[in-house]
Each structure stands twice: as structure tokens, then as C-alpha cells.
Design brief:
This protein is 32% helix and 23% strand. It is of the alpha+beta class. Helix 12 links the parallel strand 14 and strand 15.
């Protein structure tokens, strides 16, 4: 009944009328702060993809391509990165993008009290303006992941005058340099962005308006897509794929993802998962393949590492372990606590909740007493930041550079190191991996990192995703990418 009522509410919404050039996207949840310095959610990046261009972008092959910067180059000692900015770029408040504006943004990400980007730019010791179109980032030590950082939130440019004018209200207006300008946000209801006529690549933008509507219930999203009240839904429920395929008015688009789901574990003293043997027993109780089949209809990829199986930095010597219930019980018996109790905090979306329920059942067979706490997405992030959890089921949308998939969770200064993992050995290997650009050398070091975290188990990675989008047949021009972002260049909505 709840699902039907939610669907009817959306069907009756005044936003349901699809004016020409308006794309309506159903989101899996409501974003957190729409400020690149403060945001930490994947769904926030979906909105940023429309509103906030970056210095660097990524392509279908996970390569780096120009966006607001047309070129970049490393110094011979890898201690400086020089970027040339694009001519003719204006922010959505009319101010020009120049090297000084880029410097202001990068310094904010490096130093502002509210910034979550500090760790990503920590090796940067100075940002220099060489001329109106050229900046140079000086590094205290070589840092190979820097270009990747600039292809994400740390590379998003906002009008410096807007930053100064809006202060703590920056997320209300967000004057970036992207193709769409933030017009309205009603928490838990909608985010509206309108085409920015002064965009540097205006000819590639076909839409006049995009309306994002957070709908955590996958069934409600699908009902509204089928009824024509939404034009696109992201992170579609895997078990709904067959319905979309069978509907001649809809299209299913799938893309292997960099993204993964992981069970973050709280290692604090007093946490029921503080003991490494308990964490080892928990992993041994989980059957990842069964989890994929039961909850994800076999659509996703069972995984135990932050890099996807078969990818460049995956450690093939440490494959996904099979379930070993006898070993899990024996490990718990040796700890002297054969029935440890803990709670899994999980988002209130159906797929995530079902995954947590299956893990609860599996762990219970080993002797664990598991409770579930389902919360709204922003509450889940807040619980993580506060350390208010035992185990927390979280998504990471994935990054091209391996550093961006592991350091955020496990580096001692990682901005998502919610479980307070602190391993000098891990940090030392990470430091060395960041200092080299040779792929073979980096592969060896990241394999060493894998050995450390698979032994310590501060996280239990469960599976990598396939991005699943459902689209109306009226939508054209959408090109899926491994990062899962909805890029709107060339996208149009027909009659």
C-alpha cells in the first residue's frame, strides 16, 4: 500500500507534466550537501555532473580527457603539475574562469574547515598562477593520483565571488561552470536545474531543464517510469531488468561499473567487531555468490577487493573466498564469544535492505546475533561520520585511479575512514604507491596493499555493480560510462 501511495503522489505531482526539453530523472536517494567541498554521496555526483564542470573528465575507457583544463603536464621530477585552462569559460553568475579563480577553488578544497577534499589534495604544497590561463600545483612529494582527484569534486570550479557572497549558503545556489544552473531544491522531493545559456559548450546541450526526484523505493521508480512520469531512473533494481526489457516503450542500459558495495566495520575499542578474529569469522560466514543470485538476480559481480575482478589493479592471488561456516564457528569459539551481537546500519532502499537481510541470515548461522538498522541516505552518512555504527553497508561509486578506491576508506587520514582503521604498514605502502607513475610498479604496491587490508579486514567488500538505467524510448543521446554519472551532453527528450 505504501508503494502504491508513493507512486500516486508522484503521478499527481505538478512536476509530472513533461514540458519540451525537460528530462525527469528518478534518483535512488536524496543527495547530501550540493557543495563539492562538503559532499560525499554518489547521488550528489549525479547532480554535479550537470551543474559543475571539472578541470579534467574521464571517458568510456577510464582515461582522462580535457574539460575546463585543455591540457596538463608533469615536471621531470613529478613534483609539479601544470594545467592550461580553457578560453571563454564563464561561471553561472557571469564571472570568468581564470587561473586566479582556479587557485581560489583549489585553496578552498585544501584548507577550508568544511572541506572533505583535504586528503585528496594533501600532497599539494602550493597553487601558483603562472598567467591568466595557467596554474601550477607544487607537490611536497610525488602524487600520481592527483589528476584523478582533479577529475572529481576536487576539480570542480565555483565562482570565487559566489563563494564569498554565499558563504555557508553556497549549496543553495552553487554558481559553477557546468551546463545547468541549480534553480530549486526541496529536500526529499526534487532538485531542479535549468540550462545555462553562457555555457562554454552550449551547442552540445539539448535540454532546457532537468528535474531530479529522489525515490528510494525501486518499485515506485519503476512504476513512474512505466507510467511516463519519469524519463530515466538510475540504479534500477536488478530484479526489475526483465520488466524494462519486455516493455517496448522502455530501454534498459547496462554498464560494468567501477562502483562497489562494502561493509565498513567499526574497529573502535568496545566495538563488537574490534577483534580481528571476529571480523574474519564474519567474512567466512558470507557467501557472496549466493548474495548476488538471491538479491541481485545474478546481475552484479561478487568481489572481495576495492578493485573489480579482472581489472588492472585487482590482486588475482587473493580471489573471492568461498563461504566456510565451520571455520567461522571455530573462530568465534576461540574468541570466547561464540555469539557476538552487532548491528548493520543500511540505507532504506530495497536492494540494500535485502542484501543486509541475507547477510544477517548467513552470519546468524555462524553464531552471530545480528540486528538491522535501516535509515535514510543522509542519516547513514551522518552515522558513518560520527562512528555511530558497528557495521555499515556503503556504496562507493569507484574511481579510475586505484588510490581513490582504497585510500578514502583505509588511509589514516581518509575522509571516509569511519571505522578508524590505523595501520602504519598500510599508510607506508600507500605513500610509496602514490609516488610512482609506472603502472607495473604501482600494480605491485597495490597488490601489497590488498594483502594488508584483506588480512586486517577493516572492510568486507561484497560485490561490484553493473549500472542499470531504465529509459523512456523518448530519451536519446545518453552514453553510459563506467563511473555511473549521467552526462547530459547530447541528451534529448522527444515528443
Amino acid at each position: 500500500m505504501r508503494r502504491i501511495m508513493l507512486a500516486m503522489l508522484l503521478l499527481l505531482s505538478p512536476l509530472a507534466a513533461n514540458a519540451g526539453g525537460t528530462l525527469r530523472i528518478g534518483l535512488n536517494e536524496d543527495p547530501d550537501a550540493l557543495d563539492p567541498a562538503r559532499g560525499g554521496s554518489f547521488v550528489g555526483r549525479l547532480v554535479f555532473a550537470a551543474t559543475c564542470d571539472k578541470l579534467v573528465d574521464t571517458d568510456q575507457n577510464n582515461g582522462f580527457v580535457p574539460q575546463l583544463a585543455t591540457s596538463w603536464s608533469w615536471s621531470a621530477d613529478n613534483l609539479a603539475l601544470t594545467l592550461t585552462l580553457r578560453d571563454g569559460v564563464r561561471f553561472q553568475d557571469g564571472e570568468p574562469l581564470d587561473a586566479e579563480a582556479a587557485r581560489v577553488n583549489l585553496e578552498r578544497y585544501r584548507n577550508a574547515p568544511e572541506s572533505l577534499r583535504k586528503g585528496e589534495l594533501k600532497p599539494v604544497s602550493a597553487v601558483e598562477v603562472l598567467d591568466p590561463k595557467t596554474i601550477r600545483l607544487q607537490l611536497a612529494q610525488p602524487y600520481a593520483p592527483l589528476v584523478a582527484a582533479l577529475s572529481d569534486r576536487a576539480g570542480m570550479m565555483i565562482s570565487p565571488k559566489g563563494i564569498a557572497r554565499l558563504g555557508a549558503r553556497l549549496a543553495d545556489e552553487l554558481p559553477c561552470a557546468g551546463p545547468f544552473k541549480l534553480t530549486e531544491r526541496v529536500a526529499q522531493d526534487r532538485i531542479v536545474v535549468d540550462r545555462f545559456p553562457g555555457y562554454w559548450d552550449a551547442g552540445s546541450i539539448k535540454l532546457d531543464r532537468v528535474i531530479y526526484q529522489p525515490l528510494p523505493d525501486t518499485t515506485v521508480r519503476l512504476v513512474n517510469l512505466q507510467a511516463g512520469q519519469l524519463d530515466m531512473i538510475e540504479r534500477m533494481g536488478p530484479t526489475d531488468a526483465a520488466q524494462v526489457k519486455a516493455n517496448p516503450k522502455l530501454r534498459l542500459i547496462a554498464q560494468a561499473a567501477l562502483a562497489y558495495y562494502t561493509l565498513a566495520l567499526n574497529l573502535a575499542e568496545g566495538s563488537p567487531l574490534h577483534d580481528p578474529a571476529v571480523r574474519e569469522a564474519l567474512e567466512a560466514s558470507i557467501d557472496r555468490e549466493a548474495l548476488n543470485q538471491v538479491v541481485m538476480d545474478g546481475q552484479f559481480i561478487p568481489s572481495n577487493q576495492f578493485e573489480a575482478p579482472g581489472s588492472r589493479y585487482y590482486n588475482a592471488a587473493r580471489p573471492v573466498p568461498p563461504r566456510d561456516l565451520a571455520r567461522a564457528k571455530a573462530l568465534l569459539a576461540r574468541t570466547g564469544t561464540p555469539h557476538p551481537a552487532f548491528t548493520i546500519t543500511v540505507g532504506n532502499q530495497p536492494v540494500e535492505s535485502q542484501a543486509a537481510q541475507v547477510i544477517q541470515s548467513m552470519a546468524s548461522e555462524a553464531g552471530f546475533e545480528v540486528k538491522l538498522r535501516a535509515v535514510e541516505a543522509n542519516t547513514l552518512i551522518a552515522a558513518g561520520k560520527a562512528g555511530d555504527f558497528h557495521a555499515l553497508l556503503a556504496i562507493w561509486s569507484g574511481r579510475v585511479d586505484p588510490d581513490g578506491n582504497v585510500s578514502i576508506w583505509l588511509a589514516s587520514d581518509g575522509f571516509l575512514n569511519w571505522g578508524k582503521y590505523n595501520s602504519p604498514k598500510f599508510d607506508d605502502i600507500l605513500r610509496r604507491a602514490r609516488a610512482v607513475t609506472d603502472i607495473a610498479a604501482r600494480q605491485a604496491l597495490y597488490r601489497d596493499l590488498t594483502d594488508v587490508y584483506l588480512t586486517d579486514r577493516p572492510h568486507i567488500v561484497l560485490y561490484h555493480l553493473k549500472w542499470l538505467w531504465g529509459l523512456s524510448d523518448k530519451v536519446s543521446g545518453f552514453a553510459p560510462m563506467p563511473d555511473g554519472l549521467i552526462r547530459l551532453r547530447g541528451v534529448a527528450v522527444g515528443p
